[in-house]
Specification:
462 residues; alpha/beta; 37% helix; 24% strand; single chain
Amino acid sequence: MKFLKYILIVVVVTWQGYAQSEDEKQIKAIYETALTQSKSYDWLNYLSNQIGGRLSGSIQAQQAVDYTKAQLDSMGLDKVWLQPVMVPKWVRGTPEFAYVETAPGITTNLPICALGGSVATPLQGIKANIIEVNGIKDLEVLGADKIKGKIVFFNKPMDPTLISTFESYSGCVGQRYAGAMEAVKYGAVGVIVRSMNLRLDDYPHTGSMGYGDLEVWERIPAAAISTKGAEFLSATLKLSPNANFYFKQSCKVYNDVESFNVIGEIKGSTYPDEIIVVGGHLDSWDLGDGSHDDGAGCVQSMDVLRLLKESGYTPKRTIRVVLFMNEENGLRGGKKYAEVAKNKKEKHVFALESDAGGFSPRGFSFDCSEGDFKKVKSWGPLFEPYLVHMLVKGYSGADIGPLKDDGIVLAGLRPDSQRYFDHHHSEYDTFDHVNKRELELGAAAMSSLVYLFDKYGVEKTK
C-alpha cells in the first residue's frame, strides 16, 4: 500500500509540474505577443486623438461604437454584434466661469467645471455668500440658518495616507454625488465640490452627481473646483469669511437616446455554453479624451481575444469582449448586458474588467468563493515573473457587477493606482499620458488570467 501511495504521489507531482510548465509556456507566449504585436496602443490612439471624449449619448460615443465594431470585425472572431441600450444625454454647453469676490470689484477667477447631470445656473449666473464644509455631515451641524441662500463649498480632500488611492477616493466621493441633493434641504442655492484628486493642480475633475427625488424646479447647480482652486478658496474664506462666489454654467439634460454595447466573441471548442467576459467601458467624460478612463480598458479587452488567437491558444470556453456603454453616468450598458444574459439563460462563469487606467499591472482583485480564490492564489508563481504580485479578494468592476451570482467569478485588473486620480474625469486624461509598454503589459496580464480560467474553469463548472 505504501508503495502504491508513493507511486500516486509521484504521478500527481509529475502531472502538476507538467501542467505548470505548459502554463508557463503559454503565458510567456502571450506576453511576448503582447510586447511585440499588440494593437492596443494603436486602437487607443485612434479613440483618443481621432474621436476624443466619448460622453454617453454624444456623436463621439457613436463614432467609438462604429470604430471598435469595425476593429472587432477585422479580427476574424466568430461573432460580432451591437447590443442596443438607451442612455442618458447630458451636454456641458459653453465653458464654465467662476470667481471669488472679497470686496466690491476685487475678484479672482477660479477653474471649475459642471458636474455630470447638473442643472445650469440662471443665464446671468449665481452670486452669493459661500460657506465651506468638510463633507455632508457638516450640513446638519450648521443647519438652515447658516446655509440658506448660500453656495456650499464641499472641501473634504482625498486622504493622502491611504496607499490605495481608490480607497481614498471612495472616502470622499459622496460629497460629489450627493452634495447638491443634501445641501438643497438646508436652502443652499448652489454647490461647489473639491475635485477628487490627490495632486494640487488647476484641472477641475467632473463626475456623476444625482438629485434623488427632487423635482426639476428644486434642483441647484453643482460644479467641481480644481484642487489648487479649492486651496485658494479655503484660504480666502479664512481671511474674508463674507466673500461672495460667482459661477455660471449652461449644461442641459436631454431625453434618453439609443446607443450600444459593442460585443465580439470566440466560440469555445469544448464548453461553448460557458461564457467568459472581458471588458471596459467605451464612454468617457467630455473633458480630455478618456484615454485612461476607460479607453485603456477597452483596447486591452479587445486585445485579449487577439492575443489568445495570435499566441496559438484555442479556447475551451466562449470568450467574449464587451465594450460597455454609459458606465460614467448611469451604468446602463452593464445592466442591459446582464439583463439580456439572464433572459437568454446564458451561463457566465468568469468576468474580468479593466477600469483603473493603463498603468503598470500590479495584480487582480476577486469577488468569488473561497475555493476559487484558493485556486487563483496557486497561480501566483505564474504571474510573479511579470511583476504581477497582488491577487486579493475585493471589488471587481461596476459594469460586470450586475452579472454576479453564486456561480460566477468576478475580477478587476489592478494597475498601479498612484497617478490614476491625477487624470480621472479631467482635461488631463489624454493619450500622451499613457505609456505603450504599461498598456501592453496590462493586456498580457488580463489575457493570462483569462487563459487560466478558460483552461481550468471555476468550482461549479468543472
